[in-house]
Design a protein that fits this description.
Helix content: 40-55%
Radius of gyration: 20 Å
Low-confidence stretches: 298-318
Order of helices and strands: HEHEHEHEHEHEHEHHHHHH
Largest sheet: 7 strands, mixed
Number of helices: 13
Oligomer: single chain
Mean pLDDT: 89
Shape: elongated
Strand content: 5-15%
Structural class: alpha/beta
């Protein structure tokens, strides 16, 4: 058997991202023991059972919502794992949390790796972009999983630096994503507002080749317009995952100007007060790449954001 086929890993949280990651790892010939509160999709009945099914040095990947669910899961693993094992946080955690988790696990000589993951619901087919932080020895233990999850080719993986670097890179990635989506959204609103333009969806479709603004986001927006040309099925309301806010906070801390990313975050705030054609674009794009819920135009109330209302066995991701 090859070294890659001998590789095994535990995976906690089998939601939209985690479930597809388990499948992609298994397609690469790796052994994955998954745990989720939903026992219908779980391979283990508890965290203790998951750990017992793995051989040392154990690698356990956490894919639950950022914040308290991740903190509680990491603390629980710290009581169950042994010296030489490694915990990987693949959720959208704040990079400052990584430093706390790494220090706590280091008390028992358990390694910690933070992994920013991008790819959304398309990652199973296309692979996931991975931004990783941690010591070389800990990253190397998990490298077979990174190699299986990343897209084919030379791009899509980076060991960005020490603990926290992976989630910091993903945070900035999502901040850039905010700005890109907002630019497409504003362009759509202006095109739709004038009488001289007859076919706004056709314009966006034409931009997919030969233009300097072509991108995967543009491809996804074209897909959204193909099924809903005037975005009548979408409410102009867009949540934020938290990473846009953290990006701006970091920019303030380091005196780095981020006018575009800051404005795009504030535009999302505005979308929660008044109906906005531009925010229909942002909501459609978030549905296309991440499977995030779209509220009908007539729906009342507010849309839940990434991770909101999810169990500890599932996580939502932007980008």
């Amino acid at each position: 058997m090859s070294a890659e086929s001998d590789f095994e890993i535990g995976l906690i949280g089998l939601g939209k991202m985690g479930g597809n990651m388990r499948e992609r790892l298994r397609k690469a010939g790796q052994t994955v023991v998954g745990y989720d509160r939903n026992q219908a999709i779980s391979d283990a009945v508890s965290l203790e059972d998951l750990v017992s099914k793995l051989h040392a040095p154990r690698k356990v990947w956490v894919m639950v919502p950022a914040g308290e669910p991740t903190r509680q899961t990491v603390l629980a693993l710290g009581e169950l794992l042994e010296s030489g094992d490694v915990v990987i946080d693949g959720g959208n955690s704040k990079y400052t949390d990584d430093l706390v988790h790494a220090a706590k696990l280091a008390e028992k000589n358990i390694g910690f790796v933070d992994a920013g993951v991008s790819g959304g619901i398309w990652g199973l087919k296309n692979g996931y972009a991975l931004m990783v932080g941690g010591d070389d020895k800990h990253v190397s233990l998990v490298q077979p999983a990174f190699d299986a999850l990343k897209p084919e080719g030379e791009f899509g993986f980076v060991h960005a630096g020490s603990v926290g670097a992976g989630h910091f890179a993903k945070m900035v990635h999502n901040g850039i994503e905010y700005g890109m989506m907002q630019a497409y959204a504003e362009g759509y609103e202006l095109l739709a507002a004038v009488d001289v333009v007859d076919d706004v969806p056709a314009i966006f479709k034409s931009w997919r080749e030969g233009t300097v603004i072509r991108s995967w986001l543009l491809d996804l927006f074209d897909s959204a317009l193909s099924s809903d040309p005037k975005l009548d099925k979408v409410r102009g309301y867009a949540e934020d995952s938290g990473e846009g806010r953290w990006t701006i906070e970091a920019a303030i801390d380091h005196a780095v100007p981020l006018p575009v990313i800051t404005a795009s975050l504030f535009a999302r705030f505005a979308s929660r007060q008044d109906e906005s054609p531009a925010m229909k674009v942002v909501a459609s794009l978030r549905n296309q790449f991440g499977g995030h819920a779209i509220l009908p135009e007539t729906a009342a109330g507010s849309q839940t954001g990434e991770g909101a209302g999810a169990s500890a066995g599932a996580t939502e991701h932007s980008g």
